[in-house]
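Lab channel / #folding
Pinned by the channel admin:
"Please post every new chain as: sequence first, then the structure tokens as a reply. Keep commentary short and put observations after the output so the thread stays searchable."

First post following the new format, from NK:
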Amino acid sequence: MEYLGDEKGVYREKSALIGNLRFPGAVLLNADDGFFKEAVFRNSIKPFVIGFGITTPVDFYASRVSVSPDAISFRVNRKYDFSLKTTGRHNVYNALAALAAGALFGLRFEDMSRRLYAFEFPGGRFRNRIVNGVRFIDDTYNSNPFSLRQALLTLDDITCKGRKIVVMGDMLELGGMEKKFHREAGELAAHVCDVLITVGGLSRFTADRARACGLRADDIFICGSSGEAGDVLFNKIKAGKNDLVLVKGSRRMKLEQIFETQCELSV
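Reply from TO:
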């Protein structure tokens, strides 16, 4: 979890949920979160605390994390192997929280491993797709600074033979911080992707920052709509089978329309 703006204020509000739990309450906390790490290891805290994490060995600890375009695999507590039909290290945290909750209610690790592997991620939520022979990470359901950063870091994690392409739509409802967050996204994108296609007025700040940080102007395309972005992707730069394309933006940007007139194959 990442806190924006008044971070301590948000943390206090979230912590109030813990303080108001009653017996036999339990709380599952991300031990890799800088705000909650201390609470995980504070023996005197009430109610009962269960920690999960990747960088911090705790009750539910993931290691051997392996990311590919199609899946992510990891080992829990150095004993149990898990795989998800999606990618992204942030989804390991989601899985760890689910595993901790399941174990709390007596579910077996072997059963949870089978169920998690069988889980199909909803459309637009970090779902793998092949469209016109091109491999996509479809994360079009929504976007915010933290989730966009995680998506870009995931793209950076994955090895592909071709280009890494980002189609990014505006992040909305960010108030006075909107330009800052879009510029920060451009700085990270410049170090992660080979081609950047932006959609919307705010994402122009992303494009400008990516150019300033070293991404070639010829590899940056500023679009006014998802239809225009799709035309750039499929007709102008001609994304191919060796490329990997991340598509992400706020819901109102309607980036899912990029896929609607194209031929899709099952992954």
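NK: The longest strand covers residues 60-67.
TO: also worth noting, Residues 127-265 form a domain with the Protein-Tyrosine Phosphatase; Chain A fold (CATH 3.90.190.20).
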